[in-house]
Amino acid sequence: MYLCAVLAPFLGSALAGLFGRLLGARGSGCVTILGLFTSMVFSLLIYYDISLMGAPVLLDLGSWFSAGSVHVSWILNIDLLSAVIMVTVSTVSFCVHVYSLGYMMVDPHLPRFLSYLSLFTGSMLLLVTLSDFVTMLVGWEMIGVCSYLLIGFWFHRLSLTKAAQKAVLVNRVSDTGLLVGLMSAWWYLGSTDFSILYNTSTACAYADLICYTILIGLLGKSAQIGLHVWLADLMEGPTPVSALIHALTLVTLGVYLILRTSALWELSTNARTVLLFVGLVTSLMALTLGLVQNDLKRVILYSTCSQLGYMMVSCGLSAYSLAIYHLLTHACFKALLFLGAGVLIHATADVQDLRRQGGAHGALPWAWCCLFLGSLSLMGWPFLAGYYSKDAILELCWLTPTPGGAYSYFILMTVALFTSAYSFRVLILTFMAPSNSRRTEVSHTGLPYTMGSSLVILAIGSIFAGYLFNDSLVGWGSGFFSTSIINGPLTVQAVSSHMMPVLYTYLPLLTVPIGFVLAYSFLWPLPYCADTGLRTVYKFLMARWHFDFVWNTHVLKPVLDLGTYTWAIVDKGILEILGPRGLRNTILERAVPLVRAMQTGTVHDYALMLQIAVIAGLFLYALPNLYESMLSSMAFARALTVAIMLLVLAP
C-alpha cells in the first residue's frame, strides 16, 4: 500500500507517455486518473493508519551507492508530515487531472500533457517520502525537469519557451545553495540522513551555515523575493499547470524542506530571523504587484506569493505545524481559484486581460461561485478553510513576545487588507462590471462535467478542510507532528500558550469590507495616474519592482561580459594552444616537417641519428640515479661505465 501510493502516478505517466497514440486522449486520461485515484485512496489510508499509530513507516528499497563515509540507500520514511502532504498532493492533483480532460480535450498532445502531470505528481510524492538529503535531490530535480516540460508544453509559443528556460536557470541558482547545504550537512554531521538532523541538539556555527544554504535553496522553488522573477512569466501556459505548480507542488517545496529540517532551524535564531524577514518582504512585494496587474492569473499568482510569505513567517516564529496547516488549506482554495479562472478564460476565447472581461455573472455561474468562494477563503472569511489557518498565523504574530512578532502582525494585517482589495477587484471586473470584450470573446455558457466535478471537490475542501483538520494539526495540546517536527524547548511554550482578547480577533474580519471599498475605488488606475507621483509608483509596480532589469543589467550582463573574456583567453587562447586542436597544429606544422626533413635516405645520417639516440639514452640512464650512486660503496661504478661507453661511441 505504501509503495503503491508513490508508484501509481509513475505507472500512469509511463503508460500515457509511451502508449498515448494507442490509448488516445480518453484512454490516456483514464489511465492517469486511475493512477492518481489509486494514490489518493492509499494516501488517505496511510494518513489514517499512521495517525493512529503515531509512528513512521520505513521501507528499505536497497542501497544506491557508497563512497567513503557516504552511504545512501533508497528508504521511504512515511511519517505524519509525509502523510499529510501525500493526501493533499494526491487529492489536488486528482482534481487537476480530471479538470484537464475537459480543459485540454481539443489539444492533440493531451496524452503527453497528462503524462507530464502524472510524472510531476509522482516526483512530489517521492520527494516527501524519501529519508535522505541525497535521494531527496532526485525528486527535487525531477520536479524541476517536469516544471520545465509543463511550462513549455506549448513550445510553439516563444514566450513560453523562454519562460521555461528562465524558470530552470533561476532555480539553478537556488539549487546551488541547496547543494552546498547538503555537503555542509555531510561535512559537519557525518551524514545526510534526516534522522541525524532530527536528533541534532547542539547549537553550533554550522547550524547557521546549513540553514542559510537551505534558505538560498528554497528562495527559487518557493518564489521568494529576489528569485521570484520566473513565476510571473509562465501565466500564458495551460491553466492546469498553473493550478498544480502554484497551489501545492513546486512553490511549497521550500516550506516542506524547512519543516523536514526543523531541528536545525531551532538551533539557529539568526537564520529564523532572516527567514521571517524574507517572508514579510515577499508578502509586501506580492501585495503591491497584485494591486496593479491586469492579467487574471497573475493576480492569483501574486496572492500565492503573499500566502507563501505567511508560511515563511510562521516557520520563522517556530510554529511549523501552522505552516503545514496553512499549506493544506491554501492548496484547496488556490487550486479552486486557478481552475475557476480557467473556466472563465476557456469560455472567453482564452482572454486573460481583466480589461476585456466583464458581465460573466449570468453566463458562467459556476466560475462565479468558484472564484467568489475561493476569494472569500483567501481573505479569511469566517468558517471557511483560509479563516482557520490565516487567522491562527495572525494570532501567533500578535502574541509573540518579540519585536519581530509585532512587526509581523502589522505587515501581515496590511497584506490581508490589500489581498481583499485585489481579490474583490478581480470579482468586480470579471463578473459585475459591464462587458468590454469583443464579439468573438463574449462568454458562452456550458461547462464539461469533468471540469465541474473537480471544482465541486475543491469547493468542498475550501469550505470544510480548515475545520476538519484544525484540532488534529494545530489544536490545543495536539502533538500530531511530534515525530516529524521538533520545536526547541525555548519556543514550545511560546507557541502553545497563545491567548488573545476576543475583541482583537475581529480585526482581520474588518479587512474584508475595507478591501471591498478599496477595490471599488481602484478598479481602473487611469484617474489616479494623472498625478505625477502616483504615475511613477504605478509604472514602478507595473515593472515588477524592476527585478528583471536589475538581474539583466547587474548580474547577467557582467556574467556574459566575463564569459566573453574567458572565451577569448581560455577557449581561443590557452585551449587552442595546449588543447587537442593546438597539439594537432603543432604536430602537423612543426614536428611533421622536421621529421620529413630528416628522412634523407643516406646511411651516414641514419647512423648519426642512432649514435645520438644511444648517447641520450645513456645519459637518461645515468643521471637520475647519479646522486644515489654517489652515496653507495659503488660510487663511481655506473658513472665510469657510462664514460667508457661514451668514449667508445664518440668517434
UniProtKB/TrEMBL annotation:
Keyword line: Electron transport, Membrane, Mitochondrion, Mitochondrion inner membrane, NAD, Respiratory chain, Translocase, Transmembrane, Transmembrane helix, Transport, Ubiquinone
GO molecular function: NADH dehydrogenase (ubiquinone) activity; NADH dehydrogenase activity
Every NADH-Ubiquinone oxidoreductase (complex I) chain 5 N-terminal domain range: 64-113
Transport recorded as keyword: yes
Domain NADH dehydrogenase subunit 5 C-terminal: 422-618
GO CC terms in record: mitochondrial inner membrane
Pfam families the UniProt entry points to: NADH5_C, Proton_antipo_M, Proton_antipo_N
PANTHER family: NADH-UBIQUINONE OXIDOREDUCTASE CHAIN 5
Protein purpose: Core subunit of the mitochondrial membrane respiratory chain NADH dehydrogenase (Complex I) which catalyzes electron transfer from NADH through the respiratory chain, using ubiquinone as an electron acceptor. Essential for the catalytic activity and assembly of complex I.
Protein name per the record: NADH-ubiquinone oxidoreductase chain 5
Organism: Hydrodictyon reticulatum (Water net)
